[in-house]
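Suppose a colleague, Dr. K., hands you the sequence of a protein chain of 291 amino acids and asks what its three-dimensional shape might be. Before reaching for any lab equipment, you can write down a predicted structure in token form. Begin with the sequence itself:
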Amino acid sequence: MSGLKLFNTKSGVTEVTPHLADVEADVQGLVEAHMETLLGVRFLASEYSTGPVHGGRIDSLGLDENGSPVIVEYKRGVDVGVINQGLFYLSWLMDHRREFEHLVRDRLGATAAAQVLWSGPRLICIAGDFTRYDVHAVREHRRSIDLVRYRLFGSELLGLETVASGSGRTRTARRAQLQTLVDGRSEPMDELVRAVDEALLGLGNGVNRIQRKQYRAYQRLRNFACVCPPQRSKLLVYLKADPKPVDLVPGFTRNVTGLGHHGTGDLEVQLRTPRDVERAEDLFRASYAAA
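The predicted structure, expressed as tokens, is then:
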């Protein structure tokens, strides 16, 4: 990983040297076997054929927490063509929506197939490293792309690091997306929504905002916060932070593990005033770090 050193302290201090996989298929097999844990993506298919016209195979197909279609492409080391290859397959996917929905229905059921979010298809590239041109391309491109660097440590540890992430949305589109959540509400609630949006986006680079009918997700490779449409007197935010070590405060924080709600996350935060947003900032940071 970039600048990261890992040491085994079991008997003395021994550095665990990072290394790349022997072959690309080793990385692909490991990620596909644990895709939901590693990427927040439900696995659908491996080496998916794009047919005789496109003449290729998509490394992995999946569906993320918000219902967005996901293509995952792997490279053992550095490959200057990984983004272009992924975008080629993403273009094929957008032209074959019904085929993808049939795949989702077969693997995950009719409900998941009916909720596929075609406004936000994603490309995740996992490789040993990327060039500065790759990073620049992600920031300029109109598609949602994540560049993820991997390293293996010994025989039992895997490290993933998000190198760059782009939402593919212009500033104008992001402002319009935010406006859909605040239109028709009271001025205090509008201000509260904007304050939460600013706090979550300000946690770091590469935060993407995904709009669904029932909630708006803030994503750092995977969701770390979901904001529901404002109620009359409060705004509900669901975080991926572990609720167990949190000192829960009635009327402010609640453990919703196992309880049905819109969005993802087991820690519910109830916000009523700008002061509540300030109180929640440490929880926001913990959830961001967990993602």
